[in-house]
Protein backbone atom coordinates (compact mmCIF):
# COMPACT_ATOMS: atom_id res chain seq x y z
CA UNK A 1 0.00 0.00 0.00
CA UNK A 2 1.14 3.52 -0.75
CA UNK A 3 0.36 6.79 0.98
CA UNK A 4 -0.09 9.80 -1.30
CA UNK A 5 -0.29 13.26 0.16
CA UNK A 6 -1.51 16.20 -1.91
CA UNK A 7 -0.71 19.69 -0.68
CA UNK A 8 -2.82 22.84 -0.74
CA UNK A 9 -1.98 23.88 -4.29
CA UNK A 10 -2.50 20.32 -5.54
CA UNK A 11 -6.11 20.53 -4.37
CA UNK A 12 -6.26 24.30 -4.86
CA UNK A 13 -8.90 24.37 -7.60
CA UNK A 14 -11.53 22.00 -9.01
CA UNK A 15 -9.24 21.36 -11.99
CA UNK A 16 -6.38 20.44 -9.72
CA UNK A 17 -8.60 18.15 -7.65
CA UNK A 18 -9.62 16.37 -10.83
CA UNK A 19 -5.94 15.93 -11.65
CA UNK A 20 -5.45 14.31 -8.25
CA UNK A 21 -8.06 11.76 -9.29
CA UNK A 22 -6.12 11.10 -12.50
CA UNK A 23 -2.93 10.62 -10.54
CA UNK A 24 -4.33 8.20 -8.00
CA UNK A 25 -5.95 6.08 -10.72
CA UNK A 26 -2.75 5.70 -12.75
CA UNK A 27 -2.36 2.21 -11.30
CA UNK A 28 -4.62 -0.22 -9.50
CA UNK A 29 -2.97 -0.27 -6.09
CA UNK A 30 -4.85 0.40 -2.88
CA UNK A 31 -3.91 3.81 -1.49
CA UNK A 32 -4.31 6.12 1.43
CA UNK A 33 -4.82 9.67 0.19
CA UNK A 34 -3.88 12.46 2.59
CA UNK A 35 -5.12 15.93 1.70
CA UNK A 36 -4.23 19.43 2.84
CA UNK A 37 -6.78 22.20 2.92
CA UNK A 38 -7.45 24.01 -0.37
CA UNK A 39 -4.58 26.51 -0.72
CA UNK A 40 -5.20 29.76 1.10
CA UNK A 41 -7.85 28.33 3.40
CA UNK A 42 -5.64 27.66 6.43
CA UNK A 43 -4.20 31.18 6.23
CA UNK A 44 -7.72 32.57 6.16
CA UNK A 45 -8.74 30.41 9.11
CA UNK A 46 -5.68 31.58 11.04
CA UNK A 47 -6.81 35.18 10.38
CA UNK A 48 -10.26 34.22 11.51
CA UNK A 49 -8.88 32.99 14.84
CA UNK A 50 -7.18 36.38 15.34
CA UNK A 51 -10.40 38.29 14.69
CA UNK A 52 -12.16 35.82 16.97
CA UNK A 53 -9.66 36.49 19.75
CA UNK A 54 -10.34 40.24 19.30
CA UNK A 55 -14.11 39.53 19.15
CA UNK A 56 -14.25 41.50 15.92
CA UNK A 57 -17.73 40.40 14.84
CA UNK A 58 -17.91 42.29 11.52
CA UNK A 59 -14.54 41.01 10.37
CA UNK A 60 -15.46 37.47 11.38
CA UNK A 61 -18.61 37.64 9.29
CA UNK A 62 -16.78 39.11 6.27
CA UNK A 63 -14.09 36.43 6.37
CA UNK A 64 -16.59 33.58 6.58
CA UNK A 65 -18.91 35.01 3.92
CA UNK A 66 -16.07 35.49 1.48
CA UNK A 67 -14.62 32.05 2.07
CA UNK A 68 -18.04 30.47 1.70
CA UNK A 69 -18.49 32.15 -1.68
CA UNK A 70 -15.18 30.72 -2.83
CA UNK A 71 -16.36 27.22 -1.97
CA UNK A 72 -19.74 27.73 -3.61
CA UNK A 73 -17.94 28.34 -6.90
CA UNK A 74 -15.57 25.48 -6.19
CA UNK A 75 -18.35 22.89 -5.92
CA UNK A 76 -20.10 24.20 -9.01
CA UNK A 77 -16.99 23.41 -11.04
CA UNK A 78 -15.97 20.24 -9.25
CA UNK A 79 -19.05 18.10 -9.74
CA UNK A 80 -20.92 17.46 -12.96
CA UNK A 81 -24.21 16.02 -11.68
CA UNK A 82 -27.04 17.75 -9.84
CA UNK A 83 -26.91 15.06 -7.18
CA UNK A 84 -23.31 15.84 -6.31
CA UNK A 85 -23.80 19.59 -6.48
CA UNK A 86 -26.30 19.06 -3.69
CA UNK A 87 -23.86 16.80 -1.83
CA UNK A 88 -21.10 19.39 -2.16
CA UNK A 89 -23.42 22.10 -0.92
CA UNK A 90 -24.27 19.93 2.09
CA UNK A 91 -20.56 19.53 2.85
CA UNK A 92 -19.77 23.24 2.81
CA UNK A 93 -22.97 24.16 4.64
CA UNK A 94 -22.12 21.66 7.35
CA UNK A 95 -18.57 22.91 7.93
CA UNK A 96 -19.43 26.59 7.68
CA UNK A 97 -22.19 26.06 10.21
CA UNK A 98 -19.59 24.46 12.43
CA UNK A 99 -17.19 27.38 11.88
CA UNK A 100 -19.88 29.94 12.66
CA UNK A 101 -20.72 28.02 15.82
CA UNK A 102 -17.06 27.89 16.88
CA UNK A 103 -16.63 31.66 16.60
CA UNK A 104 -20.00 32.62 18.09
CA UNK A 105 -19.00 31.84 21.68
CA UNK A 106 -16.81 33.98 23.96
CA UNK A 107 -13.15 33.52 23.03
CA UNK A 108 -11.05 31.13 25.12
CA UNK A 109 -7.36 30.47 24.54
CA UNK A 110 -6.91 27.22 22.65
CA UNK A 111 -10.16 27.70 20.73
CA UNK A 112 -8.04 28.18 17.59
CA UNK A 113 -7.31 24.47 17.37
CA UNK A 114 -10.77 23.42 16.31
CA UNK A 115 -10.99 26.28 13.82
CA UNK A 116 -7.79 25.92 11.79
CA UNK A 117 -8.42 22.25 10.97
CA UNK A 118 -11.76 22.85 9.24
CA UNK A 119 -9.97 23.40 5.92
CA UNK A 120 -8.80 19.79 5.81
CA UNK A 121 -12.25 18.55 6.78
CA UNK A 122 -13.77 20.47 3.89
CA UNK A 123 -11.19 19.43 1.27
CA UNK A 124 -11.36 15.73 2.14
CA UNK A 125 -15.16 15.68 2.19
CA UNK A 126 -15.37 17.47 -1.14
CA UNK A 127 -12.84 15.09 -2.63
CA UNK A 128 -14.48 11.90 -1.38
CA UNK A 129 -17.73 13.03 -2.96
CA UNK A 130 -15.87 13.62 -6.19
CA UNK A 131 -14.49 10.06 -6.04
CA UNK A 132 -17.98 8.75 -5.39
CA UNK A 133 -19.35 10.72 -8.30
CA UNK A 134 -16.69 8.99 -10.40
CA UNK A 135 -17.87 5.68 -8.94
CA UNK A 136 -14.56 4.87 -7.34
CA UNK A 137 -14.37 2.40 -4.49
CA UNK A 138 -13.45 4.88 -1.77
CA UNK A 139 -14.12 5.89 1.78
CA UNK A 140 -13.09 8.65 4.14
CA UNK A 141 -11.36 7.94 7.46
CA UNK A 142 -10.99 10.60 10.13
CA UNK A 143 -7.44 11.52 11.14
CA UNK A 144 -8.86 12.50 14.53
CA UNK A 145 -9.49 8.78 15.17
CA UNK A 146 -5.94 7.61 14.65
CA UNK A 147 -3.33 10.40 14.67
CA UNK A 148 -2.62 10.76 18.37
CA UNK A 149 -0.21 12.98 20.27
CA UNK A 150 1.52 11.76 23.44
CA UNK A 151 2.15 13.68 26.69
CA UNK A 152 4.97 15.62 25.05
CA UNK A 153 2.59 16.68 22.29
CA UNK A 154 4.56 14.55 19.84
CA UNK A 155 2.91 12.04 17.50
CA UNK A 156 2.64 8.63 19.14
CA UNK A 157 3.65 6.30 16.32
CA UNK A 158 2.77 3.09 18.19
CA UNK A 159 -0.74 4.28 18.95
CA UNK A 160 -1.18 5.56 15.41
CA UNK A 161 -0.16 2.14 14.14
CA UNK A 162 -2.51 0.29 16.46
CA UNK A 163 -5.55 2.44 15.66
CA UNK A 164 -4.87 2.64 11.97
CA UNK A 165 -4.51 -1.13 11.63
CA UNK A 166 -7.92 -1.60 13.24
CA UNK A 167 -9.46 0.95 10.90
CA UNK A 168 -7.80 -0.53 7.82
CA UNK A 169 -9.11 -3.98 8.66
CA UNK A 170 -12.65 -2.63 8.53
CA UNK A 171 -11.99 -0.68 5.35
CA UNK A 172 -10.05 -3.26 3.39
CA UNK A 173 -12.54 -3.43 0.56
CA UNK A 174 -12.00 0.18 -0.48
CA UNK A 175 -9.37 1.03 -3.02
CA UNK A 176 -8.94 4.62 -1.83
CA UNK A 177 -9.02 5.76 1.75
CA UNK A 178 -9.07 9.52 2.01
CA UNK A 179 -7.97 11.26 5.18
CA UNK A 180 -7.01 14.69 6.47
CA UNK A 181 -3.44 15.84 6.84
CA UNK A 182 -2.57 18.20 9.69
CA UNK A 183 -5.37 16.99 12.03
CA UNK A 184 -4.69 15.00 15.17
CA UNK A 185 -6.01 14.31 18.63
CA UNK A 186 -3.97 15.50 21.59
CA UNK A 187 -3.58 13.65 24.88
CA UNK A 188 -6.47 15.62 26.37
CA UNK A 189 -8.73 14.14 23.70
CA UNK A 190 -9.06 17.48 21.89
CA UNK A 191 -8.78 18.15 18.21
CA UNK A 192 -5.29 19.51 17.50
CA UNK A 193 -2.86 19.90 14.62
CA UNK A 194 0.67 19.02 13.59
CA UNK A 195 1.65 22.70 13.04
CA UNK A 196 1.69 24.59 9.77
CA UNK A 197 2.69 22.42 6.85
CA UNK A 198 1.89 19.38 8.99
CA UNK A 199 0.16 17.35 6.29
CA UNK A 200 3.54 16.08 5.13
CA UNK A 201 4.11 14.83 8.64
CA UNK A 202 0.68 13.15 8.65
CA UNK A 203 1.60 11.33 5.44
CA UNK A 204 4.95 10.02 6.65
CA UNK A 205 3.48 9.06 10.02
CA UNK A 206 0.76 7.06 8.28
CA UNK A 207 3.29 5.54 5.90
CA UNK A 208 5.53 4.54 8.82
CA UNK A 209 2.61 3.23 10.89
CA UNK A 210 1.41 0.82 8.23
CA UNK A 211 4.84 0.00 6.82
CA UNK A 212 3.78 1.40 3.44
CA UNK A 213 5.78 0.74 0.27
CA UNK A 214 6.36 4.47 0.20
CA UNK A 215 4.92 7.80 1.25
CA UNK A 216 4.56 10.20 -1.63
CA UNK A 217 4.42 13.93 -1.14
CA UNK A 218 2.74 15.49 -4.16
CA UNK A 219 3.48 19.17 -4.42
CA UNK A 220 4.02 21.85 -7.05
CA UNK A 221 7.73 21.40 -7.65
CA UNK A 222 9.58 18.53 -9.30
CA UNK A 223 11.42 17.48 -6.15
CA UNK A 224 13.98 18.92 -3.77
CA UNK A 225 16.44 21.09 -5.63
CA UNK A 226 20.18 21.33 -5.21
CA UNK A 227 19.82 25.01 -4.31
CA UNK A 228 17.00 27.43 -3.57
CA UNK A 229 15.17 27.87 -6.92
CA UNK A 230 13.48 31.05 -5.69
CA UNK A 231 16.86 32.74 -5.39
CA UNK A 232 19.27 30.98 -7.73
CA UNK A 233 18.60 30.52 -11.43
CA UNK A 234 20.36 27.29 -12.32
CA UNK A 235 19.10 24.59 -10.02
CA UNK A 236 18.08 21.00 -10.64
CA UNK A 237 15.96 18.41 -8.81
CA UNK A 238 17.94 15.88 -6.80
CA UNK A 239 17.07 12.31 -7.80
CA UNK A 240 18.01 10.61 -4.55
CA UNK A 241 18.70 11.65 -0.98
CA UNK A 242 19.36 9.77 2.23
CA UNK A 243 17.01 10.29 5.17
CA UNK A 244 19.76 12.19 7.00
CA UNK A 245 20.35 14.55 4.09
CA UNK A 246 16.65 15.16 3.55
CA UNK A 247 16.18 15.76 7.27
CA UNK A 248 18.92 18.42 7.25
CA UNK A 249 17.48 20.02 4.13
CA UNK A 250 13.91 20.01 5.43
CA UNK A 251 15.07 21.62 8.61
CA UNK A 252 17.48 24.10 7.05
CA UNK A 253 15.29 26.00 4.72
CA UNK A 254 14.16 23.75 1.87
CA UNK A 255 10.52 24.69 2.40
CA UNK A 256 9.17 21.70 0.50
CA UNK A 257 8.90 19.35 3.46
CA UNK A 258 7.75 19.75 7.04
CA UNK A 259 10.97 19.64 9.12
CA UNK A 260 9.85 16.63 11.19
CA UNK A 261 8.37 14.52 8.47
CA UNK A 262 11.53 12.53 7.77
CA UNK A 263 11.71 11.24 11.36
CA UNK A 264 8.99 8.53 11.21
CA UNK A 265 10.02 7.57 7.67
CA UNK A 266 13.57 7.00 8.82
CA UNK A 267 12.48 5.19 11.99
CA UNK A 268 10.50 2.62 10.01
CA UNK A 269 12.55 2.81 6.84
CA UNK A 270 9.67 3.81 4.57
CA UNK A 271 10.89 5.68 1.48
CA UNK A 272 9.52 9.16 0.83
CA UNK A 273 9.06 10.32 -2.74
CA UNK A 274 8.45 13.95 -3.66
CA UNK A 275 6.40 14.30 -6.83
CA UNK A 276 5.04 17.16 -8.91
CA UNK A 277 1.27 17.24 -9.56
CA UNK A 278 1.89 19.61 -12.48
CA UNK A 279 4.27 17.13 -14.09
CA UNK A 280 3.39 13.65 -12.79
CA UNK A 281 5.93 11.95 -15.04
CA UNK A 282 8.88 13.90 -13.67
CA UNK A 283 11.07 11.67 -11.55
CA UNK A 284 10.96 13.80 -8.43
CA UNK A 285 13.14 13.06 -5.43
CA UNK A 286 13.36 9.69 -3.71
CA UNK A 287 14.44 9.68 -0.07
CA UNK A 288 15.66 6.36 1.28
CA UNK A 289 18.20 4.95 3.72
CA UNK A 290 20.68 4.55 0.90
CA UNK A 291 23.82 6.61 1.11
CA UNK A 292 25.87 7.91 -1.73
CA UNK A 293 29.16 8.83 -0.15
CA UNK A 294 30.75 10.91 -2.81
CA UNK A 295 28.71 13.91 -3.60
CA UNK A 296 27.61 17.25 -2.31
CA UNK A 297 23.86 17.06 -2.72
CA UNK A 298 22.40 20.44 -1.98
CA UNK A 299 22.59 23.88 -0.51
CA UNK A 300 19.77 25.26 1.60
CA UNK A 301 19.25 28.50 3.43
CA UNK A 302 17.34 29.46 6.53
CA UNK A 303 16.59 33.13 7.19
CA UNK A 304 15.52 35.09 10.21
CA UNK A 305 18.36 33.82 12.36
CA UNK A 306 19.70 35.68 15.40
CA UNK A 307 23.31 35.16 16.50
CA UNK A 308 24.27 35.64 20.14
CA UNK A 309 27.88 35.85 21.28
CA UNK A 310 28.84 35.57 24.95
CA UNK A 311 32.39 36.66 25.64
CA UNK A 312 33.95 36.02 28.99
CA UNK A 313 37.43 35.50 30.35
CA UNK A 314 35.73 33.31 32.93
CA UNK A 315 35.35 30.72 30.22
CA UNK A 316 39.10 30.09 30.12
CA UNK A 317 39.83 26.63 31.45
CA UNK A 318 36.49 26.69 33.26
CA UNK A 319 33.90 23.96 33.27
CA UNK A 320 30.19 24.43 33.71
CA UNK A 321 30.16 27.71 31.81
CA UNK A 322 28.36 26.36 28.77
CA UNK A 323 25.86 24.52 30.90
CA UNK A 324 24.85 27.73 32.68
CA UNK A 325 24.45 29.53 29.38
CA UNK A 326 22.49 26.70 27.77
CA UNK A 327 20.19 26.42 30.75
CA UNK A 328 18.92 29.91 30.03
CA UNK A 329 17.91 28.86 26.51
CA UNK A 330 16.31 25.75 27.91
CA UNK A 331 14.33 27.79 30.40
CA UNK A 332 12.86 29.82 27.54
CA UNK A 333 12.28 26.70 25.38
CA UNK A 334 14.45 28.23 22.68
CA UNK A 335 16.28 25.71 20.50
CA UNK A 336 19.85 26.48 19.48
CA UNK A 337 20.77 25.69 15.87
CA UNK A 338 24.47 26.40 15.53
CA UNK A 339 27.25 26.67 18.10
CA UNK A 340 30.87 27.71 17.82
CA UNK A 341 33.27 28.25 20.67
CA UNK A 342 36.67 29.74 21.24
CA UNK A 343 38.54 29.82 24.52
CA UNK A 344 36.97 33.12 25.53
CA UNK A 345 33.65 33.21 23.72
CA UNK A 346 30.77 31.11 22.55
CA UNK A 347 28.41 32.00 19.71
CA UNK A 348 25.03 30.38 19.23
CA UNK A 349 22.17 30.96 16.80
CA UNK A 350 18.47 30.80 17.41
CA UNK A 351 15.60 31.08 14.99
CA UNK A 352 12.88 31.81 17.54
CA UNK A 353 13.75 35.21 19.01
CA UNK A 354 10.48 35.58 20.91
CA UNK A 355 12.21 35.57 24.29
CA UNK A 356 15.43 37.23 23.18
CA UNK A 357 15.17 40.09 25.68
CA UNK A 358 14.77 37.78 28.66
CA UNK A 359 17.49 35.44 27.42
CA UNK A 360 19.99 38.28 27.05
CA UNK A 361 19.14 39.60 30.50
CA UNK A 362 19.76 36.22 32.06
CA UNK A 363 23.00 35.39 30.27
CA UNK A 364 24.49 38.86 30.76
CA UNK A 365 25.92 38.03 34.20
CA UNK A 366 28.12 35.37 32.50
CA UNK A 367 29.85 37.70 30.08
CA UNK A 368 29.64 40.43 27.50
CA UNK A 369 26.72 39.70 25.14
CA UNK A 370 26.56 40.73 21.49
CA UNK A 371 23.52 40.15 19.26
CA UNK A 372 23.37 40.10 15.44
CA UNK A 373 19.96 39.95 13.85
CA UNK A 374 19.01 39.37 10.22
CA UNK A 375 21.37 36.45 9.73
CA UNK A 376 21.03 33.43 7.45
CA UNK A 377 22.31 29.90 7.90
CA UNK A 378 23.58 28.40 4.69
CA UNK A 379 23.81 24.69 4.89
CA UNK A 380 25.73 22.44 2.52
CA UNK A 381 24.37 18.92 2.65
CA UNK A 382 25.67 15.60 1.42
CA UNK A 383 26.71 12.21 2.71
CA UNK A 384 29.99 12.41 4.55
CA UNK A 385 30.50 15.84 3.14
CA UNK A 386 32.68 16.85 6.04
CA UNK A 387 35.12 14.00 5.42
CA UNK A 388 35.48 14.45 1.73
CA UNK A 389 38.64 16.09 0.52
CA UNK A 390 38.20 19.43 -1.12
CA UNK A 391 34.65 20.22 -0.03
CA UNK A 392 35.81 22.55 2.72
CA UNK A 393 38.20 24.39 0.46
CA UNK A 394 35.58 24.73 -2.30
CA UNK A 395 33.19 26.27 0.20
CA UNK A 396 35.82 28.72 1.39
CA UNK A 397 36.70 29.63 -2.18
CA UNK A 398 33.04 30.33 -2.88
CA UNK A 399 32.77 32.51 0.20
CA UNK A 400 35.94 34.47 -0.61
CA UNK A 401 34.13 37.83 -0.91
CA UNK A 402 31.53 37.19 1.76
CA UNK A 403 32.02 37.81 5.48
CA UNK A 404 31.26 34.57 7.33
CA UNK A 405 30.08 35.06 10.91
CA UNK A 406 30.14 31.41 12.05
CA UNK A 407 31.04 28.00 10.64
CA UNK A 408 29.93 24.64 11.87
CA UNK A 409 31.92 21.76 10.43
CA UNK A 410 31.88 18.17 11.64
CA UNK A 411 28.79 18.39 13.83
CA UNK A 412 27.20 15.82 11.60
CA UNK A 413 28.51 13.91 8.64
CA UNK A 414 25.85 15.42 6.47
CA UNK A 415 26.15 19.10 6.96
CA UNK A 416 28.49 22.07 6.87
CA UNK A 417 26.75 25.24 8.03
CA UNK A 418 27.78 28.85 7.58
CA UNK A 419 26.22 31.88 9.17
CA UNK A 420 26.19 35.08 7.15
CA UNK A 421 24.39 38.40 7.14
CA UNK A 422 21.19 37.88 5.12
CA UNK A 423 22.18 40.73 2.79
CA UNK A 424 24.87 38.43 1.36
CA UNK A 425 22.51 35.49 0.93
CA UNK A 426 21.97 35.62 -2.80
CA UNK A 427 25.62 36.24 -3.55
CA UNK A 428 26.61 33.30 -1.35
CA UNK A 429 24.09 30.89 -2.87
CA UNK A 430 25.03 31.80 -6.43
CA UNK A 431 28.72 31.52 -5.68
CA UNK A 432 28.35 28.14 -3.95
CA UNK A 433 26.25 26.90 -6.87
CA UNK A 434 29.16 27.74 -9.15
CA UNK A 435 31.95 26.17 -7.11
CA UNK A 436 30.09 23.10 -5.84
CA UNK A 437 27.93 22.28 -8.86
CA UNK A 438 29.69 24.13 -11.70
CA UNK A 439 26.43 25.95 -12.51
N1 LIG B 1 -3.28 23.19 5.85
C1 LIG B 1 -2.15 23.22 6.75
C2 LIG B 1 -1.28 24.43 6.46
O1 LIG B 1 -1.58 25.18 5.54
C3 LIG B 1 -1.36 21.96 6.70
C4 LIG B 1 -0.70 21.66 5.38
O2 LIG B 1 -1.12 22.15 4.35
O3 LIG B 1 0.28 20.90 5.38
O4 LIG B 1 -0.35 24.66 7.15
MG1 LIG C 1 3.44 22.04 2.57
What would you note in describing this structure?
By secondary structure, the chain is of the alpha/beta class. It folds into 2 domains: 2-221 and 256-288, Acetylglutamate kinase-like (Carbamate kinase), CATH 3.40.1160.10; 298-437, 2-Layer Sandwich (VC0802-like), CATH 3.30.2130. Helix content is 38%, strand content 23%. The chain is built from 14 helices and 16 strands. An 8-stranded mixed beta sheet has the order 3-4-2-1-7-9-10-8, with helices on both faces. Strands 12-13-11-14-16-15 form a 6-stranded antiparallel beta sheet. It has a two-stranded antiparallel ribbon with strand order 5-6. Strand 1, helix 1 (14-24) and strand 2 (31-35) form a beta-alpha-beta unit. Helix 2 runs antiparallel to helix 3 (57-78) and helix 13 (391-398) packs across helix 14 (425-437). The longest helix is centred in the N-terminal third of the chain and has 22 residues, at 57-78. The chain is globular. The chain starts with a strand and ends with a helix. Magnesium ion (MG) is lined by residues 7, 197, 200.
Query: Which architecture name of the largest domain does CATH use?
Result: 3-Layer(aba) Sandwich
Task: Compute the number of strand runs.
Answer: 16
Q: Radius of gyration, Cα only, in angstroms? A: 24 Å
CA-based shape: globular
Low-pLDDT runs of 5+ residues are none
Spatial strand arrangement across the major sheet? 3-4-2-1-7-9-10-8
Ligand types? aspartic acid, magnesium ion
Q: Strand pairing plus helix content: what structural class? A: alpha/beta
CATH topology name of the largest domain, in short, is Carbamate kinase
How many helices? The count is: 14
What is the CATH domain class of the largest domain? Answer: Alpha Beta
Q: What count of structural domains?
A: 2
Could you describe the largest sheet, including whether it forms a barrel?
8 strands, mixed
Amino acid sequence: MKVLKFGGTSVGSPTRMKEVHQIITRDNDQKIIVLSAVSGTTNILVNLTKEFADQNKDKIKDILDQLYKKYEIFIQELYSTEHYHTKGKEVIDHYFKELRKLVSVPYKSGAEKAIVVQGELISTNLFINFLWEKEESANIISAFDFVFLNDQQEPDLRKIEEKLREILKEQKDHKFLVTQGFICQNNAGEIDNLKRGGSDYSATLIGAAIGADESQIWTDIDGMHNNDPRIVENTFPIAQLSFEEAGELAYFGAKILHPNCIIPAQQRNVPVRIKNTLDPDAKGTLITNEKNPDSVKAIAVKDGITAIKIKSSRMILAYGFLRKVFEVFEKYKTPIDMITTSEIAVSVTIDDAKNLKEIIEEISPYGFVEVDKNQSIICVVGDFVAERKGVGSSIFTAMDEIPVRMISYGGSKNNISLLIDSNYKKEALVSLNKTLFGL
